[in-house]
Amino acid sequence: MASLTIDNVKKSYGKTEILKGINISIETGEFLILVGPSGCGKSTLMNSIAGLEDITEGRILIADKDVTYTSPKDRDIAMVFQSYALYPNMTVEQNISFGLEMRKVPKAERDVEIQRVAELLQISHLLDRKPAQLSGGQRQRVAMGRALARRPQLYLFDEPLSNLDAKLRVEMRTEIKKLHKKLGTTIVYVTHDQIEAMTLADRIAVMKDGEVQQLGTPQEIYDNPANLFVAGFMGSPAMNFIPAKVIDQNGTPVLELEANTTTAIPFPRPESLKNHIGKTVLLGLRPEMITEPQPHKEGQAFVTTTGVEVEVTEPMGADTMILTRINGAEINCRSNPSYLAEPGSVINMMFDTSKAVVFDPKTGERLDF
Amino acid sequence: MKNNAIARKTSGVEKVLRLALYAVLLIMAFFYLMPLVIMLITSLKDAEEVRNGTLLSLPSYLHFDSWTKAWSGACTGSTCTGISPYFINSFKIVIPAVAISTLLGAINGYVISLWKFRGSDLFFAALLLGCFIPFQVVLLPMAQTLGWLGIASSTTGLVFVHVVYGVAFTTLFFRNFYQSIPGELVKAARLDGAGFFTIFYRIILPVSTPIIVVTVIWQFTQIWNDFLFGVAFSGFDSQPVTVALNNLVNTSFGGKEYNVDMAAAIIAALPTIIVYVFAGKYFVRGLTAGAVKG
Amino acid sequence: MNTNATNSESKKTQLGRPARLSLADWMPKIVLAPTMLIAIVCIYGYMIWTAVLSFTGSRMLPSYKFVGWDQYERLFNNDRWMVALTNLGIFGSLFILICLFLGIMLAIFLDQKIRAEGALRTIYLYPMAISFIVTGTAWKWLLNPTNGIQKLMIDMGFENFKFDWLTDPHRVVYCLVIAAVWQASGFVMALFLAGLRGVDGDLIKAAHLDGASTFTTYRRIILPSLKPVFFSALVILSHIAIKSFDLVQALTNGGPGYSSDLPANFMYTYTFTRSQIGMGSASAMVMLGCILAILVPYLYSELRGGRNEK
Lengths: 369, 294, 310
Fold this sequence. Notes:
The complex is a heterotrimer of chains A (369), B (294) and C (310). Chain A is α+β, with helices and mostly antiparallel strands and 369 residues long. Chain A contains eight helices and 20 strands. In chain A, the strands form four sheets. Chain A has a six-stranded mixed β-sheet with strand order 6-7-8-3-9-10, with helices on both faces. A five-stranded antiparallel β-sheet of chain A has the order 13-12-11-14-20. Chain A starts with a strand and ends in a 10-residue tail after the last strand. Chain B has two domains: 70 residues, no CATH class; 209 residues, Orthogonal Bundle (MetI-like fold), CATH 1.10.3720. Chain B has 14 helices and no strands. In chain C, 74% of the residues lie in helices and 0% in strands. Chains in contact: A-B, A-C, B-C. At the A-C interface, strand 4 of A face helix 1 of C.
């Protein structure tokens, strides 16, 4: 296992810059997830780490060794691909042993290694089959087995679960997490699924347009998004963005909400809004922070109850999402299913702004840092 | 199924139409088969029967003399060796030319599909044009080149020419086939430590059997049936069978022996017909793939 | 300061590129090199060479005395060339039209759940596996008036039956058409049958539910969706027509006289047997021009279409 340092890596094709100076460094045994919409450069960065694509500028260090110009096979990296990329003409066993064979590991050692990996992933009964005879989940396991067999310094996962159906995806997610805990491997994992990112990562790098927007633990990113993009990308349903006017209430800036009635709601870091009085900002509030009135929270600081008009409800079982409109923006609220909310009626909702954030509506940058 | 469903509903008229349909199909089958059948019948007649009978009159008994003569005794010009030496020449040309052009095509296709580099697509487009040029524009320069290389009028020279102008097609075939192989397969193998040739040999080639069959059949048929290069570049001893057949048929020496001509024509056509009968599926696949585009 | 330092450092490694200039990285290019050489020399180089020769006064041996457009002028004043070109016009258009007609018809007929479809398909297509020389030899025998079909019909009692196109300078070109259609129409059938089988079944179901008859379904729905196949077939057939050489050699040898010459035969005769290399080259260039005139628009639309799909 080893650490990985990505030092100011840039990559361009002709005039188009795919990576605009990426700086990330992760510790031995850390699980890093690169997340972002398609075309954000995460796969290019992954390929660059693997050495499958050259970079235009910068350095890549694995275990403090500069590998920027080392060929892929000498970087001691294993990769799990979205399509699994199992060799179709080889059996599962041959697939797993191929990398070892290429590295001239003696047959006896290879067999031991295959047994270890097969047991670890519970694929011992599949060793004689060809990839075409395997189900999606089994292929996924074999692909991971192939990576594990070589015991490389670094594992790369390129959207490994996106070809699986929803149920299997959740299962494999847990499996990967367990494996990571058990083996303490260093992993870089690309996905566009923010739930995968939240559940698996030690740290997440949110990317967009070839730049890292934010690098932090899942909770940091969830609670403290660096900008509008990160805030909107992470979390499902997404964070609500409410355009709200900053007004002065006895010397403290507060935010004005126009639902059924006009309400002023407090903000935990009022001093950051001082320069914006009279202007409109975007208030970011997660759906679970707008709920049915909860007696135990009554009277707490930053809790405001006000009436809103219900547009639509979406029961999800554990919660019911209530859609309403505040200051012209569509708002998702997460309420208890027992809370009565008839579409068209006006009901009371409790706004907890203790974890609220505000953004500049033009630049999308955080205003309250 | 769709048409049957309708046919069943309105029986009377549809039945007649269907009969007509089969009639047309059978007449056409006759049109395509007739020349081959007549060739066969004629080749089995003796000279007398050929002169006095009609196309369709059957031989009184099966004369194989014309076949023997076509194979080993018929005269073209002043030599009377039959077409057997030329038949063998054709194999001497076809086998190496098919092997080399297929191998080159496979490795070219592998590079163009899975090891793209700046300019490789442009190169492919340029090569594609090579599939389509009329060979008349290269005939004379090639004749000179073969002279300089010292392989003019030899089977080696013809192998060279067929490889040169066949490689565009074989590359096209393999490239299109490898296009459907995910690039991730090569990436995975590179990370596993395999090099350029190891990946080709261990991973790509084992899954290429169908396209190899298609290419080999295509190239075999093309080169076997070639006449233009054969007539332009071969010497007297290195003629392929098509050229020899044409000389035999058009020779103005002595009386016309149509039965011998027909026997020789069938012999010349036999290898490709055999391939067609036994691997028709692959032949058609090559035909449509090679024809349509890249 | 700090960023400057790292910048210059990374630049240095980039210029140095120590480990990556290995043989392995050059392998794809090395492997492609022979074919590249072949393409550059033997396709484009030779094309240019022939083009150059067509502007020289070369006769028996290539000479490099330039005569401008003289060879082209002589070519188009040459009666034999004009006959060849006219023949190509007649032969090409009839060959293409009949092949398309027969091919499409047979494909549609075979698509009607026909018994023994496989066998029929095999029969229709086998001529494509045969050399044009064999085809020419066979049809020469069939079309020969003294022994062939004409004699067969007369012997069957049609005393006045006349079918002597092979020896008639004005009709001999139709003999080429018959033999070429025999050889290539099955191929058009195969192309269209593959196309028909690729038409989305739901589309046909929808048309039937809309009340369209089988005939209307073919005319309005299925055939229009086969436009790409149609154009491919058109290009391939024109290509075969322009390159036709062996069939003429075997069937008529250009005769009677030179009445059934095609450009390819003209080119061969003038270059190799009549020692008119300059004019032969000019005729080759005209053939190339014909093919490019058909091919370039086709490839252009193909490539553009391909890009749209992506």
